[in-house]
UniProtKB/TrEMBL annotation, chain A:
Keywords: Cell inner membrane, Cell membrane, Membrane, Transmembrane, Transmembrane helix, Transport. Part of the tripartite ATP-independent periplasmic (TRAP) transport system. Residues 33-168 form the Tripartite ATP-independent periplasmic transporters DctQ component domain. One of its GO terms (cellular component) is plasma membrane. Pfam families: DctQ. The complex comprises the extracytoplasmic solute receptor protein and the two transmembrane proteins. Belongs to the TRAP transporter small permease family. This is TRAP transporter small permease protein. InterPro entries: DctQ, TRAP_DctQ. The chain crosses the membrane at residues 20-42, 102-124, 144-163. One of its GO terms (molecular function) is transmembrane transporter activity. It is a multi-pass membrane protein.
From TrEMBL, chain B:
Its main location: membrane. The chain crosses the membrane at residues 6-37, 58-76, 109-130, 142-166, 178-202, 223-243, 277-298, 326-352, 364-385, 405-430. The lineage of its organism: Bacteria, Pseudomonadati, Pseudomonadota, Alphaproteobacteria, Rhodobacterales. Part of the tripartite ATP-independent periplasmic (TRAP) transport system. One of its GO terms (molecular function) is transmembrane transporter activity. This is TRAP transporter large permease protein. Belongs to the TRAP transporter large permease family. It is found in: Cell inner membrane. Pfam families: DctM. The keyword Cell membrane applies. Residues 13-428 form the TRAP C4-dicarboxylate transport system permease DctM subunit domain. Keywords: Cell inner membrane, Cell membrane, Membrane, Transmembrane, Transmembrane helix, Transport.
């Protein structure tokens, strides 16, 4: 599934690099979660010093983790699909198969675009009003970084779907899938 | 068109797109978008629904621990702890026909005692058991089927995130629910093991014509060396939960740290492996959670159409007596399991049923176990079966198609149905330990 | 047609009131007029989870919803004033009346609704007096020293200075967490403690007068509301007022019943001695002041609320607004 990206033009390579960076940030967030909960459990039981706001942080970071890594999951062929039928079609009628794939990718671009479009005002609102989770006086964390990561993830995902279309037509109809 | 008809069409549309090869989450999101657009008459409102669900659907503490349980699973796998458990289980069953399959079931039942979610079980044993079974002559279809089937044990044998969710909805003691899950978990494991042996004996075309036994026998010393690490991990996780050091939800992180320490102590983990595990965890988490987000959008669209409510009302208002009601309920749960994710089904149906069950004096602990087993059948049924999707995503092998996995898992779904019938007929299987 | 969104399932009183009181009341009031509203309840997170209702109503996905200010501490900041001012009043009716009036009259409260594209309809969701429920007897603050006490978000501030270790917790898991020993006790209210069977694991119930709290109310999408005929708007606000009255009396009866049932089940219910209450209140940081200074109009909201409560006959243990 992984296509040789060495032959890709610069914009596609840049996109893949960004996707990978997002993936790394997402992975580091998982480490942070493990450490945070571990420290909270230890602190609470050994030193009577729980860490404030752990549930809130977990709640915020899971969304960021998913959106930051979804583009790489698509790129690495991990996004779930049932490809038996479409592969059969592509083997017998390559053009039809390619057209179907492109149609599906364009529909994906549309709905991921809708998510981006609807999240943008949510991000702006969160940013300009300083929305937070938690309780003043105890623990608060701003919500805008997560909204921003959803935007970044959705944008990368959208571009990766476009890149699938671009690669399909650059490769031409002759190459095997 | 009425919203109800739109809802039904969206159900059909999802099936068509998924079979035609569209990415499953995209098909779900697309049908949610089109469905809400058609029901509410506004594409802008439909987009807003997607946006809100994307931001909030998994923004909760309970979903937050999904990557932790997956990470723990992969650490168990990478550090060789899972492999050891698998070897031990195989050593016990190597003389039996289909012994490796039985070993997979047994190892899964043991692993279930540390994990709270089935997708972690599915991911871990895809890596450990599938290559091994195929090497020993099992068909690909059967190998992934065994893994998919036995993965459901992860949420039946405690700890279980699904039982926690049920406890939250019904205000039942989570500790009691956990205890009640043990009996059915063991019963289902036994069912699976017997089923594997019977299939290996009577349907060799399905399981594989020439099955060889697992690798050579273990000495007593090896047996101990290999079973100690996982035993320690189970003791830490379950002991910690029951001693009040941490909650079942926090157990994911504690288990991950424990597996990491054991792996480092065994010198089977290094930095490069650790990073690989982490990235892998991220990819599986993203694929699965993105699917859950999409499924929740879909479930919200269906809520607007009134379809699930109509099904639920049907089950709730049918005047059938208790047994008839439970059977109809199970049927509705299984039907919903084909198209919705586990937590959505629970969130839709359980609150609908509660007011009807309460005056009938139904044991809500028993009802919880019935609910969880029925919902878990949905993990294995097409078109939306999350355990199957996780296996496909973890396998990363184009020679095994989604339908292969669904077909391989089908006998296990049937066995779950039989086990469910027993739990309904003999509640003591669930409530005996209370 | 109107969709009503609630994140909680209908077992909760503030969801039950929608189908049992609000909807029939609106229908009755509109009988004989040219108007009628067809309500669909989407509860238990079917279209919006707990804390997400405000956004769903704002977006227009639901026309009405239970806007839970408690779970939206930033968007509905002034509405959270009660959670920063403990030891003011344990009278559910008093808090309900005043908060209802403030939602309608106070400019800062109004701003929250305007900024989020929603309109206040009524029926304040008030939580009955918060209690201390523990698995050990409490006679003085010293008894709390080093104990792990679970409490929801803002109420963690209440444990500052008591010597107890405040751990953020969730109502729904308290039972299990006290049973296994993750918590030694919790801060919770009687109407939830009884159905949650908390008295089984934490049989020592101490009433310290932490106070009744405002959590949210029914709100409506602003555009939809503005497009309604005046007759329908009136029917809804009047129905909401009846719903609020039903809620308060139903809650008060439930609280009385809960204490009786818990006492009958062997729980030890005590009123904290006055010196313990005084010491508790005196030892706290003034989180209300810090909170008020951190949000627009906060200081004004704080003093209005405290003034009005005192005028209504409440005797706060601390004048949070005057320090
Ligand atoms: Na488990
Ligand atoms: Na399914």
């Amino acid at each position: 599934m992984a296509l040789a990206s060495r032959n890709d033009p610069a914009p596609l390579r840049a996109l893949d690099t960004c996707t990978q960076v997002a993936n790394v940030v997402g992975s580091l967030l998982i480490v942070a979660l493990v450490l945070l909960i571990g420290a909270d459990v230890l602190g609470r039981n050994l030193f009577s010093a729980p860490i404030s706001g752990v549930p809130e942080m977990v709640k915020l970071s899971i969304v960021a983790i998913v959106f930051l890594q979804a583009p790489q999951a698509l790129k690495a062929g991990r996004m779930t699909r049932s490809d038996a039928l479409i592969e059969r079609i592509t083997n017998r009628f390559p053009r039809l198969g390619g057209a179907m794939e492109t149609l599906f990718d364009m529909l994906a671009v549309t709905v991921v675009g809708a998510i981006f479009y609807a999240t943008y005002p949510i991000f702006i609102k969160s940013w300009s009003r300083g929305d937070f989770v938690g309780a003043a006086g105890d623990f608060t964390a701003p919500t805008w970084p997560v909204k921003l990561m959803i935007l970044i993830g959705a944008a990368l995902l959208l571009l990766q779907f476009l890149a699938r279309i671009a690669r399909r037509y650059m490769r031409g109809a002759h190459d095997p899938v | 068109m009425t919203p109800f008809e739109i809802g039904l069409m969206a159900l059909g549309g999802m099936g068509v797109f998924v079979m035609a090869g569209m990415y499953v989450p995209i098909a779900l999101i697309l049908m949610s978008f089109v469905g809400v657009w058609a029901i509410k008459g506004s594409p802008l409102l439909a987009a807003k629904m997607l946006g809100l669900a994307a931001n909030d659907a998994i923004a909760s503490y309970f979903f937050g621990v999904v990557p932790l349980f997956v990470l723990m699973g992969f650490l168990v796998s990478e550090s060789g702890i899972g492999r050891d458990a698998f070897d031990v289980a195989n050593a016990m069953f190597r003389k039996i026909k289909g012994g490796l399959g039985v070993g997979t079931v047994a190892a899964n039942a043991i692993f279930a005692a540390v994990t709270g979610i089935s997708i972690a079980s599915a991911a871990v044993f895809t890596k450990i058991a599938v290559p091994e079974m195929r090497r020993h002559g099992y068909t690909s279809r059967f190998s992934v089927g065994v893994v998919a089937g036995s993965s459901v044990l992860g949420m039946l044998i405690p700890p279980s995130l699904l039982l926690i969710l049920y406890g939250l909805l019904t205000e039942q003691s989570i500790g009691d629910l956990f205890l009640a899950g043990i009996g059915p978990g063991i019963l289902l494991s036994v069912f699976f093991a017997i089923g594997v042996v019977l299939m290996a004996t009577f349907t060799p075309k399905f399981t594989g014509e020439t099955l060889s036994a697992g690798d050579e026998k273990l000495t007593g010393r090896e047996l101990i060396r290999k079973s100690v690490p996982l035993t320690v991990l189970i003791l830490v996780v379950l002991g910690g939960i029951y001693a009040g050091f941490f909650t079942p939800v926090e157990a994911g992180a504690v288990g991950a740290i424990g597996a990491l320490i054991i792996g480092l102590a065994k010198r089977s983990l290094n930095l490069a492996a650790l990073w690989r595990v982490l990235v892998e965890t991220g990819l599986v988490t993203a694929a699965v959670c993105f699917l859950i987000i999409a499924a929740q959008m879909y479930s919200r669209m269906l809520a607007f159409s009134g379809v699930p409510n109509a099904f639920g009302q049907m089950a709730a208002t049918a005047d059938l007596g208790l047994m008839g009601l439970i059977l109809l309920y199970v049927l509705v749960v299984i039907l919903m399991g084909m198209i919705l994710d586990s937590s959505s089904i629970m969130l839709i149906l359980v609150p609908l049923m509660l007011p009807i069950l309460n005056p009938m004096g139904v044991d809500l602990i028993w009802f919880g176990i019935v609910t969880v087993v029925a919902i878990e059948i949905g993990l294995l049924t097409p078109p939306f079966g999350i355990s199957v999707y996780v296996i496909k995503s973890t396998l990363d092998d184009d020679s095994i198609s989604l339908s292969d996995i669904f077909l391989g898992a089908a006998p296990f779904a049937l066995m779950m149905l039989m086990c469910l019938a027993l739990i309904i007929a003999f509640p003591v299987i669930a409530t005996g330990l209370l | 047609n109107a969709t009503i969104a609630a994140g909680h399932p209908p077992v909760f009183r503030w969801v039950k009131m929608l189908d049992e009181v609000f909807v029939p009341a609106v229908n009755t009031k509109l009988e004989g007029t040219d108007h009628s509203v067809n309500f669909t309840g989407q509860y238990g997170g079917a279209i919006a989870k707990v804390g997400e209702e405000l956004e769903a109503v704002e977006a227009g996905l639901a026309e009405l919803g239970t806007c839970q200010a408690l779970f939206d501490p930033a968007k509905m900041a002034p509405q959270n004033v009660t959670y920063y001012t403990p030891f003011v009043s344990d009278d559910v009716g008093k808090v309900s009346d005043l908060m209802h009036r403030l939602q309608l009259e106070d400019a800062n409260m109004q701003t929250s609704y305007d900024n989020n594209g929603v309109v206040y309809v009524g029926a304040p969701i008030v939580i009955d007096d918060y209690l201390l429920m523990t698995n050990f007897p409490v006679n003085s603050l010293a008894d709390l020293e080093g104990q792990k006490i679970g409490a929801p978000g803002a109420a963690l501030n209440w444990l500052e200075g008591t010597g107890a270790v405040g751990v953020s917790g969730n109502l729904t898991t308290y039972y299990n967490e006290i049973k296994t020993g993750v918590f030694d006790g919790v801060i919770v209210f009687a109407s939830a403690a009884l159905p949650g069977k908390l008295f089984e694991v934490a049989p020592y119930i101490t009433r310290a007068g932490l106070g009744a709290q405002y959590a949210g109310s029914i709100c409506a999408n602003a555009d939809w509301w503005d497009g309604l005929p005046a007759e329908v708007q009136t029917a809804m606000t009047e129905a909401a007022a009846e719903t609020g009255d039903w809620y308060v009396s139903n809650l008060e009866a439930a609280v009385t019943g809960a204490f009786e049932a818990m006492a009958g089940a062997g729980a030890t219910i005590t009123d904290a001695p006055q010196d313990m209450r005084d010491a508790w209140a005196a030892g706290m940081d003034n989180a209300a002041k810090a909170w008020a200074e951190g949000i627009p109009g906060g200081t004004e909201v704080l003093s209005t609320y405290m003034e009005e409560m005192r005028a209504a006959g409440a005797t706060p243990l601390r004048d949070w607004d005057k320090e």
